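Following up on my earlier thread - several people asked me to post the actual chain instead of describing it. Fair enough. Here it is, all 271 residues.
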Amino acid sequence: MDGWIKLHRKIQDHWIYQEKRKFSRYEAWLDMLMMANHKSNKFLHGNELVVVEKGQFITSEIKLMERWDWGKNKLRLYLDLLEKDGMIIKKSDRKRTTITLCNYGVYHDSETESGPRADHGRTDNGLITDTNKNEKNVKNEKNDISTTTTEREMTVMDAYTKAFGALVMNGLIQGYVHELQQKGCDDSFLIELLLETGESSARPNLKLLKAIGDSWLERGIRSRQQAKEGKREKTGERHGRDERGGNSSGANAAGESEYAFLDRQNRTGSA
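Reply from S.P.:
Thanks for posting it. Predicted structure:
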């Protein structure tokens, strides 16, 4: 069954949610989604100003053990499992544990056609009321099939799904995307990068993604428009070499994508 429902954070204040119990793995995952910051924020931790990014939250093993009524071994095994599946990135030190939810935008963002719509009403206790939710879900599914997401509406996760056909981003690729964001690369740059990689590889390929991304960064590209201009320049240079008979290598002999030969090398183990 496809489609969306809305689960407001205020549900955590309801007596149904606050019932004392041992959490299931599913409940623990929902709890983490609701604990994560919906936007970047700063707070004072002792004498240190800590920045918490969208999709992150600060906690500790003790807090999670008490919150979910779990033992230390069960908690650590669960968090390790989520990390191996590319669902979270966990960083711990003596002061705190920072958990980053990979693909947080898939669960939270509502700007695209496939995401939740704006609230239409609230009851007195703050829970959302949508009188025609199931009908909306059906309409959304039809829109997803019959229309193409425009470039302006496309998110990084949309680009990843379009490039590789996957709904959950690989944890290693998520780490590289975060690294690029820290370097100042905007979402439009990341979208172009993912789509370019998808033209050369039908599967998520970290080596190829990094090869293209690092190449663009070396050439001073920081935005999608710059990436497109650089791509056109390279295409013009290549066509010039073709006319002079200078393109005898296998990299683009068959008119393939600029970086497709890197994907072949990765598969054969030569790169």
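Residues 111-152, 248-256 have pLDDT under 50 and may be disordered. That should answer part of your original question.
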